[in-house]
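Entry: Cell surface protein
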Amino acid sequence: MQAAEIDDGIDNWYAPSSQTTQVGLLPMGDNLDLGYTFGLAQGYNSNSSELPYFLDGGDDSIIKDSIASGNSVQYSKMDVFLKKGDKYVNALFQNRAGSSIETNRSLASSLSPDFMIVPSDSTTTKVTAMEYSVLPSQFSGTDPTNRMSNKKYYIGTDQNGNAAYKIVGDLKRNSKTYGVFDLKVELLMRADPNNGAVVQREMYVYNPSSTTQKFTTMFAEDTALGLMGKTDQSYIYDMGESRGLIITSRADSSDRYTLLITNKVKDGFDQYTGVARDLLTNPTNWLDGFKNSKNQISIDGSGAEKDNNAYGTSLFKTSDGSPRVVDTAYALKWNPTTLEPGQTAHFVSTMGAMPQSSASPAVSKTYTNKTNSTGKNEVGDRLKFTMKVTNNGYGSEWSYDKLIDEIPEGLQIDTSTIKKSNDGTNFTAVPASSYNDTNRILTVMPGYSLEDNDSATITFEAVVESGAGTTIENTAQFFGTDQKVSGASQKKCLASVDVPIEKLAFNYNFTRQVKNETNKETDYANQTTAKVGDVISYKTKFEVASDSTHPLTSATNMISNLPNSLGTPYDITVTGADGNSYPQGGTNTGVVREVKAGESVIVENKAKVTSAAVGKITTNATLKGGVVANKDLDDLISNNAEVSIENVDGITSVPQMIDFGTHNFSGSSLEANNVKTDGELIINHPTDNPFMISVSYDNTDPNSQMKNSDVDTLSNNLGNILFFRQRQTSVTDSGTWQPILANGTRIQSESFSGGQDNLDLSEYIGAGSWKIKMDSNTKSGNYNGTITWQMIDSA
């Protein structure tokens, strides 16, 4: 089998001349890496009281014929593990490496069957590693025509520069029991491209024959968290929402770890079950947890996903209903596959391995068409984009610091629709200034702290423009920090969505521009600067392109929005499609009649910058009720025109709420970090001298101290009550906790540089940046108080 016969998205594969393995490592912080490889990754350590040493590849048995016997499949096995310094921490059951390297290689991950191919026959009730694993070329006591041959090993790198490894071979079976198959198989391990601490285990299956082939794919592994050569006796929980499994070390373990097995990936598994190997007969029937409608074990059965379990539901329980420790393993299953000649099928499972308390953010980006439900996206359609992050960790906390989304050409974002939520139900508006129209980048500071299974969502709407290509790819970047990992740095996760576009043969340009009349600017542009008292002019133009097949039949209105920080508009002129100008009493046109190819409608007006203006003034225009070729368009949105107000030093936006969550007292004092921050911290400092930003709180001042509805206050017995994580030189510093004093505490010990307009410091004040201390005698209630912000020029 050639490496290029299956398109797996990697184009730099090569076969190492020595056919020896390499190991991929994904940094996790705190001297930990998530490792992945085929074959052996642990080395011999003569001190049996210590973990075995990490072995950085070099397994030259990788293409050796795999052997199956009983529960064991040997050679070329997948392994996911943790590298802790120079030591190896297993996630899968492993025999501890001895002094014989050949024995070690043969036993690597030997009790995990990995991918299995099973006939799609509802009469199949038993699936063992020996009989159905795709790897073996030799079977003990089974049909000799059931085998893989022509095995080869390849190395490559993904789009993020992370290592990828694959084994390819020919799978042929000719058995009444195990199926008749002629397939080419690729087994692949690579990093999840959207999450730096998750590994994807994949299988591609190609049908080179002239006949249709039908089968069901399974995947199973015997897990053992950090224990070498021993059964692990751990817990198996459901992740909820039919997403997969959580396996955790029991509470009395000296080192506690968590495994996450999820299907939230393209071509992920459909059914899953936890497996307690100590409760099963030998050899293990990996189909045991899948039951049909008659509650019988069957290849067409369902697993734990059918129960719609809540997050954290234990899949094995004692007689009193509490979670039960078992010899942990798991099995996954996909819906049956029918593979026509020349077709390829793809199967994926992800695994994250981490110490307990480590966060595991899972991100996604999706869209819905709000204009129509035909499945087609056309020019003028309004799309709603949803960016979601869920912390799949166990005993963890993740600070959601920032989202960056570069809006591609062909989409015009409606900045009035940007919203965020940490419960998926109650959304708050995000300022329009979060979007930079010049570089087309949306930046949102969510300010949320996400504990286990918590999610946060950011949404916005955008209109498909006439310049859109046949496919629009949109990628969001999610930034956050693991709050319970010492020294953790901010990590980035990615999520993308492709939007197919169908052309409407209607091309248009919708622009809004501005110029400063006081500064005698002659040309309109997308942005300008102004001072209080300056007169600025706006020009809004909707034009049907000269090459457009269809005209704009009509529209109900074209609205040019103006904020309150500008005075009443005057000198308003509307130029119609006929080229004639009409004086207008307001900036709305009213009914727009037909606009043919090459024609346009223009609205111009002037306004004066008032003393209420500060920071950045962002405005756009809307064409409502448009009709093209008998199709009703959604509201079309112009670009944003921006006016930056100069020579006004000030704090233009401060957070509305610092939320420390809800807590129960148990007779002792309590410290808690904030779980979310609502609002932004935006600074305007156009003058060149450096400056400081400080926050103050006085718990003795009745006008600012925190009180509940019964006017109870928080005690001063512990000294300072509020603390801030003060950075030294930048927001990426880990920071030190400083008390918030009545006369102010800097958010950064070094000054900020001057000459900055609309400086967004929201990342400094997000979740995990504030701490509260409460005495044991604190009375119940919802406490509210006031903090004060100051901007001070440095000496």
